[in-house]
Amino acid sequence: MPVASPIRVRGTSMGTERMCRQRLQAPRSPGRASTDLFKFAGGRASGVARRARIAMYKACTRGGCSLSAITAAIDAAVSDGVDLISMSLGGPVEAFYDDLVAVATFGAERRGVFVVMAGGNDGPTASSITNVAPWMTTVGAATTDRVFPATLRLGNGVVLTGQSLYNIPFSQGAGTIPLVSRDCGKYGDLTPDRVMGKVVVCSKGEGAWAGFDVERAGGAGMISADSRTRFGDAVKAQPFNLPGLQLSSTGGKKLADYMSSVAYPVASFNFTCVTVTGENRAPMVAGFSSRGPNPIVPEILKPDVIAPGVNILAAWSGAASPSGSVMDPRRVEYNILSGTSMACPHVAGVAALIKKRHGDWTPAMIRSALVTTAGPLDKDGRDIVDSGSAVGAAVMGATPLAAGAGFVLPRLAMDPGLVYDAGTQDYVDFLCTLNYTVEQMRQFVPELSKCERTIPGGVANLNHPSFVVVFDGRSRIRTLTRTVTLVSARPERYNVTVAAPDGVKVTVTPATLEFRWPKEKRSYSVPFSSEAGAKARPAGTWEFGHIAWENRKHRVRSPVAFKWDD
């Protein structure tokens, strides 16, 4: 089916594809003082790359997103001459030659088009990450310091804090409404004889859409309190149609414990309808953000980076309700959404800014700039933590399997100092190193007659801005090589710093890199050794470190993941 070329318009993307009608807007007009959802997250808003021209291609319908439509949209975008493609889509992980999206985006890379993709929302399960080809930039989701607090006072006096986008402020006396726990996963299952006049605690059926079933059955309110670990302690705010709030997994467990300890559980709501910023720890890796290791090629670290993906204000289509329920009559211009689909466009915006400043950079150079300047620390200078790592207990630091290189930092990415470059031939060699047949290789390069070469030392030696080192029973020493290119305007000298787990020796040769002119390249090698006598690691153990090239102006940091196999 032919795909029409886009109308070329100027405007601002708010992080999701809005029904464009030949214009993009945020705010709607210069006279509009605020963009918001029900007065939450109010203020003037813009996307990351405010002056970017945006071309939009329809690849999905109400019934889903067919692979043929997705690949047709990618091909049309490349044909139209776009500089980058942002895709908040994902599906089951398959071998690259069987993955039509991987094949289509390889074609985009051949034409110099940067591709950024959402990593998926199936965390915190290991190897749940999707869109894992090395020519894609894969993005995980992180929280921000903006919350929409609402509280629930239990009959025993304990106060639980959650989040809500219910927009009618009020406070009730303690213990005024009875609680009842129900499975809200299927519309029509709730009955008035069980929930009339009560607050329904939905153990399943996350999302404000369940509120319409509660309302239909005469419920007085609802609490979304799934105590499972999918979302961890990062709470997604929901636009409830009746008094309701979303609790974290820890809060949900506390509520469940209370309800099981008394015969007649009761609670009261307090809605202040305010937006609070700057008080909570952020960024944290969202519990739902899909995790590595890479299920296809473990030697390629995924995700690459994380970006804001929880409670994001985004432009919204007037064809859908804010809750997603067909029972919801409300229509809004902006919504508050969560997912790696929200994180992906943030990185696309940063990539657009990089491309504007450095028009001759390859997609790999842009990806390298994003990765090597990403921050491993939160806004208060502490290690970024993983909200899905230890629900109900002390949170743990986010590893590169959850956060990649860290939180994307736009200003640093504009001037990375050094980059790790790779081109089409490098990716062809990578695929050949996977022992793909000529027939399989022709999915990517139709004119290929045979694999001319592979990557010496294996796929881990692809010139990627991160490292994965796999120790196995045959060898406790792995040597990897990389080549960096100077992208600063003046000569520079870099010295290396290394962080590694106990019992792992990392030697970088040379330890100093001298660059005399822009675009000069320098290579280095890194023998990694798991030393004899070090602590025993069971097969499947992962530990982490980094390699950084530094001078007074730049710090070019690459995460390193170590795995021990049998």
UniProtKB/TrEMBL annotation:
GO terms under biological process: proteolysis
Keywords tagged on the record: Hydrolase, Protease, Serine protease, Signal
Residue ranges of every copy of the Subtilisin-like protease fibronectin type-III domain listed in the record: 461-561
Keyword check for Protease: yes
Gene3D superfamilies on file: 2.60.40.2310, 3.50.30.30, Peptidase S8/S53 domain (3.40.50.200)
Stored InterPro entries: Peptidase_S8/S53_dom, Peptidase_S8/S53_dom_sf, Peptidase_S8_Ser-AS, SBT, Subtilisin-like_FN3
Keyword Protease recorded: yes
Domain Peptidase S8/S53: 45-378
GO MF term (any one): serine-type endopeptidase activity
One GO cellular component term noted in the UniProt record for this chain: extracellular region
Family label: Belongs to the peptidase S8 family.
Protein name: Subtilisin-like protease
Organism taxonomic ancestry: Eukaryota, Viridiplantae, Streptophyta, Embryophyta, Tracheophyta
